[in-house]
Amino acid sequence: MHPSSGASACRPEALALFDDIIDVRTPAEFAEDHIPGAVNAPVLDNAERALIGTLHAQESAFKATRTGAALVARHIAEHIETLFVDKPRNWRPLVYCWRGGKRSGAMATWLNLIGWRARQLEGGYKAWRRYVIEELTTLPGAFEYVILTGPTGSGKTRLLQALATSGAQALDLEALACHRGSLLGALPDQAQPGQKRFETLLLQALQQLDPHRPVFIEAESRRIGHISLPDALLQAMHAGRCVRIRTCLPKRIEFLLQDYDHLFQNPDAFSQALDKLIGLHSRKTVSHWQALIHEQRKAELFTALVETHYDPAYQRSSHHHFTWLDQAPTHDYDPTAADQTGQARALIRRLDLPQAVQA
């Protein structure tokens, strides 16, 4: 059996040669990050892997290996009888673990003994991780970006989604990061991915884009929640063509009331989140805003936040990094209107980007 080699085997065209990608690491390792499309078939569960590590450190490598071999054998048998039971005779899976060592080696050996054409990924997940890091230093620069700029509440994300629906290429970083990018940007009942998972998702999204067509993207700072954007992507965005999205204040407030209404379902948590603004604003001002939360004076609260916090913060922001911002056209937009697709197409025509929409 010849293992598939490192970085070259991680490219989409190489991975596509296999019928399935089998990740034999623990569920916890798999949840942290994994190769796109991989199926988790752990040969050790979370507790068992910890046990083997303890035996190796506190007793002996021999006892750890012997105990681990028995556990791995049982799990492989379970997967053969369940997860793999319907696989055809000519099934060709790619198997990987953390470093391409014993766990994936054991699984690949047994699959090949059965008669399937299994291959082991040399270097395992670590090879995949190196590949992601290397690709994200160069691939972002392959695209021409159109940057949507504008203050909080102007509906940039909704416009970005409408552009994608209209057939334009759009890269929604906030969707990948599961965060709206502001103090109150955490999504309800949805945690952010870890940095490694985000970078895998970002690479996957970039690889699906056509470098011959522009990519619409929202202006972002370096961090979205606890996620950091790669330097190469930030540099490419800063060099992109910009458009200023302008939305009148009443429409911005109406939009914010739609998108952030869930915050009022837990007034205590909402109020606690505003504590982070003390220092930027006086305790008296923040206390007044917190009172508005508990009194459910929603429009009044968002108007105060926009005028006193978000708009001044936007003016102080690092948007000077965007090279072409001073030459950016202004586009009037209503994020509350029913016809979002029509507005997206109007922007494409305004920017004279016929190639933006795929025929």
Could you characterize what this model shows?
- The strands form three sheets. A five-stranded parallel sheet has the order 6-7-5-10-11, with helices on both faces. The protein has a four-stranded parallel sheet with strand order 2-1-3-4, with helices on one face.
- The protein has helices at 12-15, 27-32, 46-58, 61-81, 102-114, 124-135, 156-165, 173-177, 195-207, 231-238, 249-259, 267-274, 283-294, 298-316, 340-350; strands spanning 20-23, 39-40, 93-96, 119-120, 145-149, 169-171, 215-218, 223-224, 227-228, 241-246, 330-332.
- It has 359 residues and is an alpha/beta fold.
- Strand 3, helix 5 (102-114) and strand 4 (119-120) form a beta-alpha-beta unit.
- Helix content is 46%, strand content 10%.
Compact overview of the structure:
By secondary structure, this protein is α/β, with parallel strands linked by helices. The protein is built from 15 helices and eleven strands. Strands 6-7-5-10-11 form a five-stranded parallel sheet, sandwiched between helices.
